[in-house]
Design a protein that fits this description.
- This protein has four helices and seven strands; from the N terminus they run βααβββαβαββ.
- A seven-stranded mixed beta sheet has the order 1-2-3-4-5-7-6, with helices on both faces.
- It has a single domain (3-174), classed as Aminopeptidase.
- By secondary structure, the protein is an alpha+beta fold.
- β4, α3 and β5 form a beta-alpha-beta unit.
- α1 (13-29) packs antiparallel against α2 (44-52).
Length: 175
């Protein structure tokens, strides 16, 4: 199995949209730990914005997109309500967004590959830390993040209660 992580391009948008839809379909018939809703998040619009902003990266397995992540510098408003390990301007911090793995590639190391890439890119570009938020009941993601060295910072309300997502855990990894 050959894995390549690279910047997403506009030619990837259709495949990313299909990945998002396939993942949301999978979550709707299994346990939807992430709390994502097809047509609401993630969507083609998220992929398009990530590619436009040069913040979306894909991991390909034998040429097929197996997963994706957006690394930007845009925290949620609620991030300001907690004390982080690193006190830096967000220009020096990556925020992980839209971290996805296609259901056909679960438990194959795709998530770890995306995390490793994120940390390597953070080091290479002078970032001081990597942050993320995760729905409090997304146990598989929380387990991955903790195995990858993220430390729990606090729990906040991101204003998504209307979708049944009341509390999100914040994590940070100092690089």
């Amino acid at each position: 199995m050959s894995l390549v992580v690279e910047s997403g391009t506009s030619t990837d948008i259709d495949e990313l949209e299909k990945l998002y839809d396939d993942l949301n379909d999978y979550l709707s018939v299994t346990t939807n730990y992430a709390g994502w809703i097809k047509g609401i998040y993630p969507t083609r619009k998220d992929a398009t914005a990530g590619i436009r902003d040069n913040t979306l990266f894909v991991v390909r397995c034998d040429g097929k997109i197996a997963g994706s992540v957006i690394l930007n510098h845009q925290p949620e408003e609620a991030y300001s309500d907690v004390k982080w390990k690193v006190d830096e301007d967000y220009s020096r911090i990556f925020v992980i967004r839209t971290f996805v793995v296609h259901p056909s590639f679960l438990r194959m190391g795709i998530g770890h590959a995306l995390m490793d890439f994120s940390f390597e890119l953070a080091l290479k570009t002078g970032m001081k830390s990597v942050r993320l938020d995760v729905y409090e009941k997304n146990f598989p993601a929380i387990s991955l993040y903790e195995k990858c060295g993220f430390e729990y910072i606090g729990t906040v309300d991101l204003g998504l209660g209307k979708h049944g997502l009341d509390w999100f855990k914040l994590y940070e990894k100092v690089v």
